[in-house]
Amino acid sequence: MTARERGAAIDIKGATKRYGNFTALDDVSLHIEPGEFMTLLGPSGSGKTTTLNVVAGFTDLTAGDLAVGGKSIVALPAHKRNIGVVFQHYALFPHMTVGKNVAYPLTLRGMDKQARDRLVVRALDMVKMADFAHRYPSELSGGQQQRVALARAIVFDPPLLLMDEPLGALDKKLREWLQLEIKRIHRELGTTFVYVTHDQEEALVLSDRIAVFNQGRIEQVGTGRQLYDEPTTLFVAKFIGESTSLRGEAQASGDQTSLTIAGQKIVAYGKLAGGRKPVVLLRPEKLSLAGTNTPPAAGQNSLTGEVSEAIYLGSGSKYQVTLRDGSVAIVRSSLEATPFSIGDTVDLRWSVVDAKLLADDDRADMTMT
Amino acid sequence: MRLAPFRILLGLFCLLVAVWLVMPTLVIIPMSFNEKKSLAFPPSGFSWQWYANFFTNPDWLSSFFNSLRVAGLVAVAATLIGTLASLGLSRMKHSGAGLLRAILITPMIVPGVVLAIGIYAVYLDYQLVGTTTGFVIAHTMLAIPFVIIAVSASLEVFDVRLETAAASLGANRFTTFRTVTMPLIAPGILSGLLFAFVTSFDEIIVALFITSPYLKTLPVQIFTSITRDADPTVTAVGTIIFIATTLIISAGLIISSKSTRS
Fold it and tell me: Same domain for A200 and A262?
């Protein structure tokens, strides 16, 4: 059996969860491949944790179906699902040693002591905590506790591991190191991982694919690259990475849409159906700055603005440019580019092909980058 | 330096209050070693005879064992019911929980004599006066609030999310309770048990109403003995109960303070 085959596929179909008038999950469908590392990403209250709790069996669905390995588990109580769960708050049993904690799921499964000890050592080895088997959780740091919790969740070899913001309570440096550890463990086990986080950077580091949640729905599912380069909604574009969004008087012609912003006209490929208001979305590294006296190259758009912030980053520079309509553009430029300072009047330039045309959506403004 | 006289006065006052609070208890200890058959204070001489009387007189011994038996049964029953009630209350989310908790605590607040009248009236009809069953039912009711308070304090610091974790690892609700919840609230349960035992063991008001010549508890025996004749055995018994109760309650307090700290 190869590592990949040990994980189970997950199928969430039309999952809906209502609490009175509040809809926590609104017709969510998601397929996760066996052995895949899937991250559920979104702001708090977006439904990502509800989805995880539904899969774990901690929350019942109002409607919809849920299958693991092709079998519906909706009717199974949490303790019969055989799914590993790692919590943000560790949830180690304080009255048991590390070894007893990790052995707990094996004891419940009636495994004899010898086999149990062997698996406990193996799981603790995997998280590099084998020397701590006789300690109590209260004697460990947060990062160590979470590694023990991880060992306890994988020791019974579940086909699926759920992680609910497991690094949320740890400091940045430890978090980054544990991210790599989790990635390694995922590779070694071949188990399907479903990981919940609100941290887009963490999602990009860990995941095979990311499902972006917003207001109880999935906005888009894809690899990090797909979400960054080809966002299908303004919410996804703003949630993943930095971006500049431009709004103006729109006019569609042929396969292009033109926008007039404070008297200057720009174009982008594509057009929106149904007369929805368009937004032109630009990633910071696709933008460049030029003096107003140099003419734009063919196929380039140009907008005039004033540098309102200039930050030297070592590997390059980052600028904020306030455009004439008051909107702010974020630009990343390489070291070779001509430097500008605050107060300079500049032209913001980009190739027409680098702009994304998306439907405007005021829900997207709720997110912070 | 000008504060010194004031501080001395304050110290004296505190000492006076302290003496006032512990004096009645401390008086009985020297009296229990009295040589004469009198309750006069200060006592004269020294003897163990009242202790000897306690351990040889069948009236005293049988009432002592009655109290022990009733308190033992009460401790078990009250702990069982009180613990289950606390668990239920801690999991109730709606506003009814507060009201229900208040109702369960009432036996602690209602004047003992009021309860005693009610209990006596009912017991006459059901022939429970002077029976172990009658004592256990009445005292359990009085002890349940103490168990609820002790166990609820433990549950307050118990992290319910551990139960969710246990479920994810394959434990059903009963196994979860047995392996996770109970060991972690055990200090609260144990101190509830001790409080319940003591509540029953030194209960006198209700006991006076429902007692009979065939079933007397120790406090009832003390009361009847001291009102009938000036038998200094009561001071020996008092001393024994005082020491035993102090030990049990301190144990209970130490256990419960440990559980809330961890």
Answer: no
Instruction: Give the residues across from A304 on adjacent strands.
Output: A347
Same domain, A145 and A209: yes
Residue that has been written with the tokens 């979400």 in this structure:
A227
Shared domain for A55 and A199, answered yes or no, is yes
Indicate the number of domains in chain A: 2
Chain A residue with minimum CA distance to B167:
A79
Determine, for residues B168 and A84 on separate chains, whether the beta-carbon distance falls below 8 Å.
Answer: yes
Closest chain B residue to A152, measured at CA:
B169
Question: A71: helix, coil or strand?
Answer: strand
Q: Provide the CATH number for the domain around residue B124.
A: 1.10.3720.10
Question: From CA A236, how far away is CA A198, in angstroms rounded?
Answer: 13
- The alpha-carbon gap from B180 to the nearest alpha carbon of chain A, in Å, equals 7
Residue B154, CA distances (Å) to A92, B76, B151 in order: 18, 18, 5
pLDDT in tens, A93-124: 999 999 999 999 999 999 999 999 999 999 99
CB–CB of A192/A10 below 8 Å? yes
| CB-based contact A79 B179, cutoff 8 Å | no
Task: For residues A7 and B23, give the distance between their C-alpha atoms in angstroms, rounded to a whole number.
Answer: 74
Would the CB atoms of B162 and A156 count as touching at under 8 Å?
no
> Measured between CA atoms, how close is B167 to chain A, in angstroms?
5
Q: Which of A89, A95, A108 sits opposite B169 (nearest CB)?
A: A108
Strand partners, A25: A17
Residue of A80, A82, A93 to mutate when probing chain B, most B C-beta within 10 A: A93
**What's the pTM value of the predicted model, to 2 decimals?**
0.83
CA distance A192 to A209: 12
pLDDT digits (tens, 9 = 90+) for A161-180: 999 999 988 888 999 999 99
